[in-house]
Amino acid sequence: MEYYNCSPELLNDVVHIEKSMENAAEEAGATIINSTFHHFSPYGVSGVVVIQESHLAIHTWPEYGYASVDLFTCGDTVNPWVSYQMLKDSFQAGHGSAVELKRGEMALLKRKNFDVKAMRDEKSSEDGDPIRTRDVWFTERDDKIALSLKHDGKLYDVQSDYQRVEVYNTQAYGNMLTLDGMVMTTEKDEYVYHEMITHVPLLTHPDPKRVLIIGGGDGGTAREVLKHENLEEVVMVEIDDKVIEASKMHLPTIAQSLDHPKLNLIIDDGIKYVNDAADGSFDLVIVDSTDPVGPAEGLFTVDFYKEVHRILSADGLMITQSESPRFNSKVFKEIYQTYRGIFGQDNVHCYLAHIPTYPTGMWSFSYSSKGSANPMNLRPTEEVDAFVKTSKLRYYNADLHKAAFALPNFVKEMIG
Ligand code: SPD
Q: Which protein residues touch ligand 1 with a CB less than 6 Å away?
């Protein structure tokens, strides 16, 4: 079966494709045993529904509004034409076509005798019916590598003015926020990123009082920043209110501080906010951005970092997520070159953390200091230990702080 002029959005929605294929199988009279579906980032879905009578397989090309489906059945209990029509409606296809092919020439088939008992499927349930299983995957795919997470469905899916905002219910990492098909944060491993992007600067700046967060709409960075009770002002500027909506609805443990009375949450363009801010107005600027594609592109430019430098106070710090040295090597090198040109060769440091749901699992952060703050001047160990304990931190501690700045040789070579 082939379908043309379909809705690109529907063809790129793995949950919709899975449901459509399963409905098409059931309505045609088939008994479903298993289904496995993958979404490829940025677009395309592949999947198979295994039925007692054989299988249905699909691949979609949303960018062409095209899908091709194979439906293979045996016996005459399944009516494939029912499936054909259902899928045509379900994909909102402008045009469809199908070819029915008879396979298996009776004259050439000879029946063999074998021991039926020995061949019985051990996975069948006691009453003999097949056990139905499900296998649906989200895949963040690059040209050369991919990261897949099995999920039970999508909880949120909105195309905002800036990007596609989705939340999946993953089996291994809890609810997961993706933007334009890229993993932003998951309930199970978010603490690594959020503790490292916040406590490293806040426990080394001599006297932080005013903090600005650019991006960070899921709320994890704000939650950690607000654990530092001595702060006087915390401003967060997120461009996309849909990210905030999705996080409040489906990532409540991450978004828990978005309504905190001390947080001044502004929905606006972070670049514009920084350009308009007064000289020396923040002690710490955290850039909690997405990757340098789409709406975050402007957050990776020399002009933006120069403006951040301008609005930092004399001892001010800028912290950014600086991608993966293994995966985004070119961007990674450029980031450090750019920061050093603005903050000075010796004032820019890199530190690492292990984040399993980001490409390669090795993620980096940059620490750029305008004045005297230095990442090795950590507050006294007892003070840090007490903070770690009362704040119930799960990743960050004094030893890890120091160790995070110890870089593998290949990373040192990359940033000089
Ligand atoms: N490739 C993923 C990079 C994501 C960085 N930002 C994550 C936002 C978490 N608050």
A: 182-185, 193, 216, 218, 220-221, 288, 290-291, 321, 358
Pocket test for ligand 1, best of 173, 177, 184, 237 (most atoms within 8 A of CB): 184
CA of residue 187 relative to chain centroid, distance = 11
Please check whether residue 355 is in contact with residue 363, taking contact to mean a CB–CB distance below 8 angstroms.
yes
pLDDT of residue 368: 98
pLDDT attached to residue 393: 98
User: Is 213:225 a contact under the CB 8 Å cutoff?
Assistant: yes
**CA–CA distances in Å: residue 331 to residues 321, 324, 337:** 12, 9, 10
Q: Which of 180, 240, 283, 288 is catalytic?
A: 288
Strands 263-267 and 233-238: parallel
Query: Could you give the CA distance from residue 370 to residue 378 in angstroms, rounded to a whole number?
Result: 17
Would you state the pLDDT for residue 133?
72
Query: At 125, is the pLDDT very low, low, confident or very high (cuts 50, 70, 90)?
Result: low
Residue from 154, 137, 177, 184 nearest 290 by CA: 184
What HEC string does 55-108 produce?
Answer: EEEEEEEHHHCEEEEEEEECCCCCCHHHHHHHHHHHCCCCEEECCCCCCCCHHH
Distance 221 CA to ligand 1 centre (A): 11
In sequence order, which residues have a C-beta less than 8 Å from that of residue 168 and are 6 or more positions away?
138, 149, 151, 153, 154, 155, 175, 176, 178
Q: Rounded mean pLDDT of the chain?
A: 92
Asked whether residue 119 carries a pLDDT value surpassing 70, the answer given is no
Length of the chain: 416
Question: Does the structure show a pLDDT above 60 at 248?
Answer: yes
207 is catalytic: no
Q: Which of 277, 181, 282, 266 minimizes the C-alpha distance to 217?
A: 266
Please say if the pLDDT value at position 328 is more than 90: no
For residue 42, whether the previous peptide bond is cis, meaning omega lies within 30 degrees of 0, is: yes
| pTM of the full structure | 0.78
